[in-house]
Design brief:
The complex is a heterodimer.
Chain A: H1 2-16, E1 25-31, H2 38-57, E2 66-72, H3 77-90, E3 96-97, H4 102-115, E4 119-121, E5 136-138, H5 143-157, E6 163-169, H6 173-188, E7 192-199, H7 207-216, E8 220-224, H8 227-239, E9 245-248, H9 258-261, E10 269-272, H10 281-294, H11 300-322, H12 330-343, E11 346-348, E12 351-355, E13 361-363, E14 367-373, E15 379-384
Parallel strand pairs in A: 1-2, 1-3, 3-4, 4-5, 6-7, 6-8, 8-9, 9-10
Antiparallel strand pairs in A: 10-14, 11-12, 12-13, 14-15
Helix pairs in contact in A: 2-11, 3-4, 5-6, 11-12
Chain B: H1 3-34, H2 41-56, H3 82-113, H4 118-140, E1 158-163, E2 166-171, H5 172-194, H6 196-206, H7 208-213, H8 218-244, H9 251-266, H10 271-286, H11 296-310
Antiparallel strand pairs in B: 1-2
Helix pairs in contact in B: 1-5, 1-8, 1-9, 1-10, 2-3, 2-4, 2-8, 2-9, 3-4, 3-8, 5-6, 5-8, 6-8, 9-10, 9-11, 10-11
Classes of the chains: A alpha/beta, B mainly alpha.
Subcellular location (chain B): Cell membrane
Main location (chain B): membrane
Membrane topology (chain B): Multi-pass membrane protein
């Protein structure tokens, strides 16, 4: 009995003792490696791994290597919550880059907030993400900033546009948030929203929505969805005879839609937070690395995940100069890292980044691109001035 | 509702409903013989699409272990006109059928041999489905693969005709899907109704013990059933893949659930029921007003619920007779 009590007491003492930071420095990455969302997640994983390789190749954090700890956050809220919990408690990470979807961020970020672990959202663009808590920031510019550019560009290309059809994936928080911005922008530009159609990200058959769009007489169509459904919708719009301009939201901002809508992707306008043509040294290095491995230009999702890891490492580097990371207690370092992330200025592939006090990204440059297909499967985003 | 809208919805509903029907037939065949639901059927559907894609294109570019592989550097011989594409579709469906046979061997037969509860077989098939889906992603990534638009020759993408003031439009591929589904249903109807194999299958479904006494090899006919089921699932997968793209490893999941609704609605184990159920659900979805079309899955299942309240045995199912 005494022995049991002693063991329990020792256990309690041990757990109460502060945990030191491990070396190599573990940084959590919770992205969608499986499920429908893996289409975006696998690009992000590539971006994060490239960052790890590049950073460790240059001596890590003042000589201390980093180690990315990957946990599959899949495409649903529960998987994201589990991934976050594992990273925080089992892997003892200093911070987390993830999850992939805004929908998941609303569920999983509060876990990190309660545990006082800094989170950088690499692709969460819905309204209200940085406001989840003090420890939540994002490197993905919000929809409200990016989306209006595309509408203005469409009006430049075709000033005669009057009627707009809006379609969005209603089971996705980000698409729902984005479509609100698109609709407000369209109205602000004096356009008439003639029909609003909903679909699910899992849908493949859009005949019903497309025939409604055709019957509404719209001369501009705006799609907020993810790559699979969005690409398919574009394809079916064109196949069924829609001839006007199409704007795609952030979810369609990936070369993964090329094999989906093939030649029908041609001409789709997309507002972007990243461009491979961005001239900064950080970006050109990233583009070179990416092209060498994948024989194509890096997509926005890879660039943002890379930037997420880089921001975390740059902040850790600043802390390490003041006091070696290995000498920190884990809990204290997490709090300090969060402060440092918000305080710093970063030169990433996305250009120069800073954060406001909420953790909202302050980004200088945005782009509007139009898809140009070379052949059935290969295309590129051509930047419009 | 205007006449043009009515015709449009009818065409949309028949096209998708016919795919539901041949997909659900695969479920029904297995259920009628073994009395269990094969949850791996959705995964076999997905596999069918991927097999055909492999035969027609043979390249998986971006992700997965097969990244960079190119089976046909000079272009696939099974691409470019409707007949070779049809051949590729059939071969893809046959391979899917063989996979279904393998699933029976690995997941169902050991359970049957031990006289396990049917629920265990159901869970085991669910496990197989998850393994298959994740294997697909491991091998070829989560990308969507689309058949090149010239894979089945130069086909006009859509057909349209005037109804009053309005135009009714249907994609050519939907018309083809409907036609192929009808042919398949007719062939299956003939095989089950008029051939020796069909008679034996019906005997096994009626009473495996008696069929065995009559000299019918029950195990062999169970394998034949699984092959037919996988063939139909794989064929449906290719048809959907042709129309909407092979939408990643998970794209059979929704169809798997929908197929379940179809067979319950039509009557468990009833072959005509699967056809009627498929068409009813397809049409119900098509008639959901377009601004609410995101809710079409909910509508399908709500319809199922309502019909089951009125007819618990489904539309064409037979009521269970309890002897007292």
């Amino acid at each position: 009995m005494k022995r049991i009590a002693l063991t329990v007491a020792l256990g309690v003492l041990a757990s109460a003792q502060a945990q030191k930071v491990q070396v190599p420095i573990p940084i959590g990455v919770a992205l969608a490696q499986t499920s429908n969302t893996a289409l975006l997640g696998q690009e992000q994983v590539i971006g994060a791994r490239l960052a790890e390789k590049f950073i460790n190749g240059r001596g890590g954090i003042n000589g201390t290597p980093i180690k990315l700890v990957f946990q599959d956050a899949a495409g649903d809220e529960n998987s994201a919550i589990n991934a976050f919990q594992n990273l925080i408690t089992k892997s003892a990470v200093v911070g987390i880059v993830g999850p992939t979807l805004s929908q998941q961020a609303f569920a999983a970020d509060p876990i990190a907030e309660r545990a006082k672990v800094p989170v950088l959202g690499p692709s969460n663009t819905a309204k209200g993400i940085p406001q989840i808590g003090q420890f939540i920031a994002r490197v993905s510019a919000p929809v409200a900033v990016v989306a209006p550019n595309a509408v203005k560009q469409a009006l430049k290309l075709d000033p005669k546009i009057k009627k707009v059809a809006v379609l969005y994936a209603q089971n996705d928080a980000f698409s729902t948030s984005e479509t609100g911005t698109f609709q407000e922008t369209a109205k602000a530009q004096g356009l008439d929203v003639v029909t609003v159609q909903k679909f699910q990200t899992t849908d493949t058959d859009f005949t019903t929505q497309v025939t409604s769009v055709l019957n509404s007489g719209a001369d501009l169509v705006i799609v907020s969805g993810l790559a699979a459904d969005g690409g398919n919708l574009v394809k079916q719009l064109r196949q069924l005879g829609y001839k006007g301009l199409i704007i795609g939201g952030n979810g369609l901002n990936t070369s993964n839609i090329f094999p989906v809508c093939q030649k029908y992707c041609d001409g789709v306008i997309i507002a972007q937070a990243y461009s491979p043509a961005q001239p900064s040294a950080a970006n050109q290095l990233f583009v070179k690395e990416y092209r060498a491995q994948y024989k194509k230009d890096p997509p926005q999702f890879a660039a943002q995940a890379y930037a997420g890891v880089q921001v975390m490492v740059d902040a850790l580097r600043a802390i390490d100069r003041r006091k070696k990371l290995s000498q920190w207690d884990l809990d204290d370092l997490r709090v300090e890292l969060n402060k440092q992330i918000l305080a710093g200025k970063y030169n990433t592939p996305l250009g120069e980044l800073r954060f406001d006090k909420d953790g909202e990204i302050i980004q200088k440059e945005f782009y509007v691109a139009q898809i140009k297909m070379k052949d059935a499967k290969n295309g590129s985003f051509v930047y419009l001035k | 509702m205007e006449a043009s809208q009515l015709i449009q919805n009818l065409l949309n509903g028949l096209a998708i409903g016919s795919v539901y029907a041949i997909f659900a037939l695969g479920y029904t065949l297995v259920f009628s013989i073994l009395g269990i639901i094969n949850f791996a059927h959705g995964a076999v559907f997905t596999l069918g699409a991927y097999f055909t894609y492999t035969l027609v294109v043979g390249q998986f570019e971006n992700n997965g272990l097969l990244k960079g592989i190119n089976l046909f550097p000079n272009g696939s011989p099974l691409s470019g006109n409707p007949w070779v594409f049809a051949l590729a579709t059939l071969v893809g469906a046959v391979i899917a059928g063989l996979i279904a046979v393998l699933i029976e061997r690995l997941a169902f037969r050991p359970m049957r041999a031990r006289g396990a509860d049917p629920l265990l077989a159901l869970v085991s098939s669910l496990g197989v489905a998850l393994v298959i889906v994740n294997l697909i992603q491991l091998l070829v990534g989560a990308e969507i693969y689309n058949f090149p638009s010239d894979a089945y020759g130069q086909v006009q993408p859509a057909l349209s005709f005037q109804v009053g003031e309005k135009v009714v439009i249907i994609r050519t591929v939907q018309v083809i899907i409907f036609a192929v589904s009808l042919v398949m249903l007719a062939v299956l109807g003939y095989v089950i109704g008029r051939t020796k194999v069909g008679k034996a299958l019906r005997a096994v479904a009626e009473n495996p013990g008696t069929a065995s006494l009559l000299g019918i090899s029950v195990d062999r006919f169970i394998l034949i059933t699984f092959f037919l089921s996988g063939f139909l699932g794989g064929l449906a997968g290719t048809l959907v893949g042709t129309a909407f793209g092979v939408a990643g490893p998970y794209f059979g999941v929704t169809y798997g659930l929908k197929g379940l609704a179809v067979i319950v609605l039509g009557g468990l184990g009833s072959i005509p029921g699967a056809v009627v159920g498929g068409l009813v659900i397809g049409l119900a979805e098509a008639f959901v007003p377009s601004q609410y079309s995101a809710y079409k899955d909910a509508v399908a299942f709500a319809l199922l619920f309502v019909i089951l309240l009125v007819r618990p045995q489904g539309l064409l199912g037979r009521a269970q007779i309890q002897k007292v």
